[in-house]
Amino acid sequence: MLPFGVYKAEELVKKRDHFFPKNVEFIRAEIDKIVPESNHVFLTDGRVLEYDQLVIATGTSPRPDQTPGMDDPATWRKSVFDFFTLDGSVALRDALATRQGGRLVIHITEMPIKCPVAPLEFAFLADAFFEDRKIRDKVEIVYVTPLEGAFTKPVSSKHLGSMLEERKIRLEPDFVIEHIDPETKTLVSMDEREVPFDLLVTIPLNMGEDFIARSGMGNELNYVPVDKETFLSIKYPNVFALGDASDIPASKAGSVAHFAIELFTENFVDYIEGRSMKHRFDGHANCFIESGHGKGLLIDFNYTTEPLTGKFPIPFIGPLPLLKESRLNHMGKLAFRWIYWNMLIKGRRIPISTLMSMAGKRQTTSK
Amino acid sequence: MPVIEIAGKQINVNEEGFLTKYDEWDEEIAKVLAKQIEVEMTDAHWNIIKFLREDFKKEGETATSRRVQTVGGVPVKEQFVLFPKKPAKKMAYIAGLPKPKGCV
Question: What predicted TM-score, i.e. pTM, was given to this entire model?
Answer without folding.
Answer: 0.89
